[in-house]
Amino acid sequence: MRARIRITLKHGVLDPQGKAIENALASLGFKGVNDVRQGKYIEVDLAEKDEGKARELVEQICKELLANTVIENYAYELVPA
Amino acid sequence: MQASVVVFPGSNCDRDVKVAIEKITGAKVNMLWHADNAVPQTDLIVLPGGFAYGDYLRTGAMAAHSPIMRDVVAKAKAGTPVLGICNGFQVLCESGLLPGVLMRNASLKFVCRDVRIKVERTDTPFTKAYARGEIIRIPVAHGDGNYFADTATLDALEKEGRVVFRYVDREGEPTPASNPNGSQRNIAGICDERRRVVGLMPHPERLFEPLLGGTDGRKMFESVVASLVH
Q1: What pLDDT is recorded for position A17?
Q2: B149 to chain A: which residues are within 8 Å by CB?
Q3: What is the residue range of A19's domain?
Q4: pLDDT score of B230
């Protein structure tokens, strides 16, 4: 089973890198871009076959290491490896 | 006096800290590798600056989970003074010993220059030798020094007197212009509830003797000696 994990900055947390990308898009002439937020995408291959147990494991992995929940949210989906 | 400096792969201020501690306090300094499991008997632990584990994932995130950190956390909770400088501050936040997180500088630029900070608290093992409200000149060198915590945490830090250092101007005012990285409330350094664990972004070890251009960082290490005596 494979976990596709997305980590994003919480609302209200300043994202200077997203702002820099937004400014770069504007300077390239792209119109109509209201806002840009940058995050991370992480794929984790799991030996676990049981979906419930896999979810438990991914939750733990996200909380303990992959996301800093002071500033970040995480979301994930499980797909066949 | 015995001191311990933790060396992570990617630490680069570890030798500077060792020399500073030796010259200022006369302590014997043990260099501890990140993969060690135990911190030997010590009066002081320093987590130095650098880019531990290449700052992979988030600054300090991997280092906070390295084997030596389990005992650093245990020793800190038992009352051993712990100082985290720059990357060391980031590791302390990621390890949960200090609240909040250090984010990318608001300017997105690496900042390497002298700044002014005000020593707001002298009731920690690292600030005892300063005068309360003393303004010191001290170098910063970081790309991720933008202190962030939610409003409730920031209010609690202020209420409990745990903001130890703040970026200020010549007059001692925490102005936006004197803030090198966008830190909330100009916070440069904080301590834990028990006031034994201190983290700050500036580098006291880079300004401890005239040859280095100044001595304003010296008292941070003299403070440890003073606090051990009492």
Answers
A1: 87
A2: 70
A3: 2-79
A4: 53
User: What domain count does chain A have?
Assistant: 1
* Angstroms from B89 CA to nearest CA on chain A: 15
What's the mean pLDDT when you consider all of chain B? Answer: 96
CA distance B165 to B133: 9
Is the CB of residue B104 less than 8 Å from the CB of residue A15? no
The CATH number covering residue A50 comes to 3.30.1280.10
Chain A contact for B56, CB < 8 A? no
Burial of A51 (0-12, 13-18, 19+ CB in 10 A): exposed
For chain A, first and last CA: distance in Å? 5
Task: Map out the domains of chain B with their CATH numbers.
Answer: 2-229 (3.40.50.880)
Q: Do A68 and B94 touch (CB under 8 A)?
A: yes
pLDDT in tens, B6-34: 999 999 999 999 999 999 999 999 999 99
CA distance linking residue B218 with residue B230, whole number of Å: 19
